[in-house]
Design brief:
Distance between the termini: 40 Å
Helix content: under 10%
Order of helices and strands: EEEHEHEEEEEEEEEHEEEH
Length: about 250
């Protein structure tokens, strides 16, 4: 049965990540190999949302996309449920990759961000963790791959704004069987397939006023002045701001 989300006057059917989609990135291999039914739903992605046709035209004209992801609580064996994880490609004609901004709508999230040596994805230059609650904003700056983890007992629902003109890059994280760290019940464990992993830096979410939002205000409302999101489509023009978010 399809999972749907009503957003404004539109109903969107979710893209579903199944357990078999997680095969390459699961920490607990023994647990995974014992599972016979791998078609189980893991999390749901509602892409390219808009509350009206007029909003959608505005979003598209600014080369943006607004999505919502829903991650129910659960475990992947000894590991907390998470997204597959990905990187973003570079803006054409630059050496700057696209950023992304998230907001927690319900529940709580643990965002794991990692920056790797260009061309050597198994050498990690920086690993940062941001724990975010309802209303919090988290910006993934250029150069960072990221994984979202639901380490709570509640369903996590989060939104994101991102440039609509690229496809995410999953291969490096899948090839290394996950990100540099896995979050287990007793804490973070390093992924042994990476050659060099620094200690985790813990950092705070962004403040809402940096984006002209009141505390807890839904960032979808940035559509009323979508030019404020231009750093997502032309990050090379905002490196002073973007370099300081972590």
């Amino acid at each position: 049965m399809a999972v749907t989300l009503k957003f404004g006057d539109k109903v969107t059917v979710a893209d579903v990540r199944k357990l078999h989609d997680m095969e390459d990135v699961v920490f607990d291999r023994e647990w995974f190999e014992r599972i016979d039914e791998r078609n189980t739903d893991m999390y749901y992605m509602f892409r390219d949302l808009a509350k009206s046709d007029a909003d959608l035209e505005t979003i598209k004209s600014h080369h943006l996309r607004y999505d919502i992801t829903r991650i129910p609580p659960g475990m992947l064996g000894s590991e907390y449920i998470k997204t597959v994880g990905h990187y973003h490609p570079q803006v054409p004609g630059t050496d700057v990759s696209y950023p992304e901004i998230y907001q927690v709508l319900e529940g709580s999230a643990t965002y794991l961000l990692q920056k790797v040596e260009p061309g050597e994805e198994d050498i990690v230059l920086d690993a940062a963790v941001i724990k975010a609650e309802k209303g919090d904003l988290v910006l993934v700056p250029p150069g960072y791959g990221h994984v979202t983890i639901n380490a709570s007992e509640e369903t996590l629902e989060m939104a994101n704004w991102v440039c609509r003109d690229f496809s995410s890059v999953y291969e490096p994280i899948k090839r290394l069987s996950g990100a540099a760290y896995f979050l287990l019940k007793d804490g973070f464990a390093k992924n042994p397939l990476y050659k060099d992993i620094p200690s985790i830096r813990y950092t705070a979410p962004l403040s809402s006023d940096e984006f002209g939002l009141d505390s807890g205000e839904n960032m979808y409302d940035l559509i009323s002045n979508a030019g404020r999101l231009r750093f997502l489509t032309a990050p090379q023009d905002f490196m002073g701001f973007l370099a300081g978010v972590l």
